[in-house]
């Protein structure tokens, strides 16, 4: 988890507005890279890691990365790569944010 991801300030925009921003993401050019194969296609662990790494590279320079991360933090996706993070990483970011708010 990167420090950059933790520094994102939530905008408070309605989810529909965030979703419209996320729709302009770089992932729109190759959505399978970010979501993975369909349920009928096998993917080895090595293939999955290579796909996730490639998706992270694309997310790194995406102009809507912050909006994508905010959206993911708010909807808690169960699959895919969002702003360079897997769902497990996003869950960890949410937990860290909650812990920080409680400590404050």
From TrEMBL:
Keywords: 4Fe-4S, Disulfide bond, DNA-binding, Iron, Iron-sulfur, Metal-binding, Transcription, Transcription regulation
Compartment annotation: Cytoplasm
Stored InterPro entries: 4FE4S_WBL, Whib
PROSITE patterns xref list: 4FE4S_WBL
Cofactor(s) required for function per UniProt: [4Fe-4S] cluster
Highest taxon in the source lineage: Bacteria
UniProt keyword Metal-binding present: yes
Protein name stated in the entry: 4Fe-4S Wbl-type domain-containing protein
Organism expressing this protein natively: Actinocorallia longicatena
